[in-house]
């Protein structure tokens, strides 16, 4: 068995595997006979700030990501300066990011935070995010070595 980089010549076989992986989500594209556009892979940053008296007091940094047919949004950084918290600024900025990502046709928007970050958890739930019930997230500890 060899591991190599995929090329466009693999497109047909990759498509067969992809449709096997996502039989429900990609039913329509499969029925249309479309091959998965493996050449499409793009990422678009979305950076918003809130300004008060000409000073930036909050920022949100999100990304729109597309690979093949799949489009999703990721909220990666959010920060409100301490004295401006609790005034609804964070919520408004998250909502604006969600609006923009939806306009770009993101199928899902992901965000992660620490279990003990109650402020952020409450905020995301207030905006309408739900805690994944059937999904698990794994993270890689960079100090760890690959297991053999
Ligand atoms: C999390 C953070 C962005 C919230 O910003 P904010 O502008 O204070 O939030 P908002 O005023 O818009 O509040 C929106 C909702 O968030 C929740 N929330 C905000 N502050 C809270 C607090 N101190 N305790 C509990 N819930 C809180 C509430 O549900 C609130 O809605 P409500 O006021 O109707 O109850 C801000 O505390 C922050 O920058 N924290 C440090 C950085 C951080 O943790 N970033 C998130 C990483 S994922």
Query: Stretches where pLDDT falls below 50 for ≥5 residues?
Result: none
**Distance linking N and C termini:** 17 Å
Helix content: 25-40%
- What number is the mean pLDDT? 96
- The third-level CATH topology of the largest domain is Aminopeptidase
CATH class of the largest domain: Alpha Beta
Percent of residues in beta strands? Answer: 25-35%
Instruction: Write the CATH homologous superfamily of the largest domain.
Output: Gcn5-related N-acetyltransferase (GNAT)
* Morphology: elongated
The overall number of domains is 2
Question: SSE order in H/E notation?
Answer: HHEEEHEH
Question: Can you walk through the features of this model?
Answer:
The protein is α+β, with helices and mostly antiparallel strands and 148 residues long. The protein folds into two domains: 7-38, no CATH class; 40-127, Aminopeptidase (3-Layer(aba) Sandwich). 28% of the residues lie in helices and 27% in strands. It has four helices and four strands; from the N terminus they run ααβββαβα. The chain has a four-stranded mixed β-sheet, with helices on one face. The mean pLDDT is 96. The structure holds coenzyme A. The site of coenzyme A has 18 residues, from strand 3, helix 3 and helix 4.
